[in-house]
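fyi for ur records
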Amino acid sequence: MTEKKPRWTREAGVVSASLVVPAVRLVALVAGPLTEDDGSKSVYVDRYIVLALCCRIVREFSKMGGEYRGGGMRGLRAANWHEELPEVEFEGVVIREGRLMGLGDRLHFEDEDIVMIECPWPVEEDDRRLAEHEERLREKVRK
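which gave:
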């Protein structure tokens, strides 16, 4: 009989978060696979204006066979969970389907590739200047 080995359990907590307005106009290109009504496959690319950048400092904790029992970070420390070095995470914030969303939200951006592009030019030039980025993203999704 093979004995089951305990698994590492991971928990994370946000230490701090802040929103900042980008210093330059940013556009997020979001691409994903699309199946047409006739069954043919294609790729869509949507553009979103990045309204803000979210910066979070996150602490991760891990423990072999650990079970989280609440108490936040203080509780994890008291239960002798191993505390990792803090990580800094950044993501763009956009409005999608009428709601503010972070581009890192895999629930709302599942199976999609995302790239943020600096756009220091006038909005009228977006079609021309973003076309190459959009085509590269389409190719990436097709693979």
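The chain has one domain: 8-142. thats all i got for now
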